[in-house]
Amino acid sequence: MSTPDSVALIVGLGNPGPRYEGNRHNIGFLVADELADRIGGKFKAHKSGAEVVEGRLAGARAVLVKPRSFMNLSGGPVAGAVKFYKAPPESVIVIHDELDLPFGTVRLKRGGGENGHNGLRSISKSIGTRDYLRVRFGIGRPPGRMDPADYVLKDFSGAERKELAYLIDLCADAVEALVTDGLEAAQNRFH
């Protein structure tokens, strides 16, 4: 995926503030934090309306992005970062929670629908395309008749938290594979 001048714009989705830190909806932020540790950088406020870390990830130029807006309004800060860094849509990688995958499952794809995910819908609308890469982290379906909107804003369960550090690391590895090896090779490795 990478050429000498190209940049991978890696977006972790979540909601800002301590109230949401451990929520299922914030898995994108958690993976972005792991990637920032790997780069050796700290997130800093950026004029795009996001927090960013610039550096090299697995030898490739990368910018990590965490929108400072709420999830449903992620598109504005992402579009601002895309414009600022002159990143074409095919170099944008969005890390997000996925209700339709069992907990801990990591799946990679390019484009497609948003499956009711308002953060993805906002990004697609703001950058004018759905043709960006997605790293989908399975959070499973809500139990019983719980509203999915309530479920994604709940913290991971105790049993899930026991596996979470490993799964965040695995998801970060999948992002690195996307950046260095491209979609098909990364899918072959992680699916």
UniProtKB/TrEMBL annotation:
GO terms for molecular function: peptidyl-tRNA hydrolase activity; tRNA binding. The active site is at residue 25. It catalyses: an N-acyl-L-alpha-aminoacyl-tRNA + H2O = an N-acyl-L-amino acid + a tRNA + H(+). TRNA binds at residues 20, 70, 72, 118. Keywords: Cytoplasm, Hydrolase, RNA-binding, tRNA-binding. The keyword tRNA-binding applies. One of its GO terms (cellular component) is cytoplasm. Its main location: cytoplasm. It is an enzyme of class 3 (hydrolase). It holds the Pfam family Pept_tRNA_hydro. The record marks 97 as: Stabilizes the basic form of H active site to accept a proton. The keyword Protease does not apply. The record marks 15 as: Discriminates between blocked and unblocked aminoacyl-tRNA. Coiled coil: none annotated. CDD domains: PTH (cd00462). Its EC number is 3.1.1.29. One of its GO terms (biological process) is rescue of stalled ribosome. InterPro entries: Pept_tRNA_hydro, Pept_tRNA_hydro_CS, Pept_tRNA_hydro_sf. It is found in: Cytoplasm. Belongs to the PTH family. Hydrolyzes ribosome-free peptidyl-tRNAs (with 1 or more amino acids incorporated), which drop off the ribosome during protein synthesis, or as a result of ribosome stalling. HAMAP family: Pept_tRNA_hydro_bact. Monomer. This is Peptidyl-tRNA hydrolase. The gene is pth.
